[in-house]
Amino acid sequence: MANFTPQVKRVSGKSDKEQLKLAFGLAKEQRFDEALSEFETILQSNPNAKLAHLGAGNMLFRQERYDEALRHFQIAARLDALLPQAQVGAGQVHLKRGDLEQALDKFQTAINIDPNYTEAYQGLGQVLARQEKYDEALQQWRKAQRLNPQLISVRLLMAQAYSKQGKLAEALSELKSAQNIDPTRWRTYQGLGRIYMQQKEYTAAIEAFKTAQKFNPDIPIVAQLALVRALIEVKQLEEAAAILRQMPRIQQIEPMKHQLWGDIYQGQGLSKEAAEEYRAAAMLAAQEGDTLDDLANWDALLEQDEDKWQDVVAPYKAAADKRVAEAQQRQRQNFQERRLER
Questions:
Q1: What is the distance between the alpha carbons of residues 16 and 80, in angstroms, rounded to a whole number?
Q2: CA 67/CA 65 separation, integer angstroms
Q3: Number of compact structural domains in the chain
Q4: What pTM did the predictor assign?
Q5: What is the pLDDT of residue 180?
Q6: 3-class DSSP state for residue 48?
Q7: Do the Cβ atoms of 299 and 311 come closer than 8 Å?
Q8: Is position 241 within any domain?
Q9: Is residue 160 one of the residues assigned to a domain?
Q10: Which of 52, 170, 176, 311 is deepest in the core (most CB within 10 A)?
Q11: Helical packing angle, 221-233 and 237-246, nearest 10°
């Protein structure tokens, strides 16, 4: 007679409702791995728990596990066709992948289910902004804003769109409102810093970037580079140099770093060091196949007379500024193309 082994179902001692409360609490505390584990535990005992599918999808989305996240959102939508959160979750996955038509469909479906669901208008606006339809995007975000004026994420998106349109006063207004709603959001200060840089208000930009860094010590490299640029513009060269020294070596930003070092050395009257940095920036930023003839002429001058550094600073700087700007434009274009290929 075959041995019989009874299957014992593990009992956690908590109801699904209690576990959901715990899981969402962990997510609110940004303990995402623990929250995901709780949602998965619920689904093991109750595969039809739609809120657990939503929660798991959101946690997986944060971990950039988009295929798994989408599967949970799709299951939640099948379990409850009138659940706008499931449509928005799926829409955000499609948006991340660059599947704009599918994203648009999901966000519009969520609005059809619940015309007061702010996240759906936010997502719809993001799709339109990705298509560079900024006026239409702003219309959708204003709908979300009317439903919930406290949505800082919407104000930040609106500020970005206004900035793209060159409407800096409108962008600044949205960022100031976001600051008034919650003065601890680092992204708000990063946005303010960018606008101030465009307005050449460098002292205000420095204050904004430093405040962003206070709330998030790991602000993006692009914000750190902008802070260095602002410090150079107001002649705070030692502080600018100290920040540059702490930056990691990342291939994409090395030309910009050398360009900034060139500006620092030039401000300190160090012609040789400035020229060397500008030349390095131009070389690293050059596209494959560039002839670099503009550098060769000045290189030849230095070979004839090594004391001519002061004469080559300006042309090396011009070459660096031109090629770094072109490299940044290529990076932005490549980023957009990769989005469309997803």
A1: 18
A2: 6
A3: 1
A4: 0.83
A5: 98
A6: coil
A7: no
A8: no
A9: no
A10: 52
A11: 160
Residue type, 4: F
Span of 109-113, 121-125, 233-237, 294-298 with lowest mean pLDDT:
294-298
Range of the domain at 262: 248-342
Task: Name the residue type at position 324.
Answer: V
Return the structure tokens found at 229.
Answer: 């640029």
Q: Name the token pair of 328.
A: 């940044």
Per-residue model confidence (pLDDT) at position 11: 44
Q: Which two tokens stand for residue 241?
A: 């140099």
Vertex 118: Cα angle to 114 and 119 (nearest 5): 100
Q: Which 3 state secondary structure label does DSSP give 12?
A: coil
End-to-end Cα, the chain, rounded Å: 57
Q: pLDDT digits over 291-316, tens only?
A: 566 666 666 656 655 666 777 788 88
Nearest CA to 127 out of 172, 164, 82, 95 is that of 95
- The Cβ of residue 153 has, within 10 Å, a number of other Cβ atoms equal to 16
In a domain, 326, yes or no: yes
For residue 119, give the nearest of 96, 90, 77, 99 by alpha carbon.
90
Helix (H, G, I), strand (E, B) or coil at 236: coil
How far apart, in whole angstroms, are the C-alpha atoms of residue 340 and residue 334?
A: 10
Residue 32 lies in a domain: no
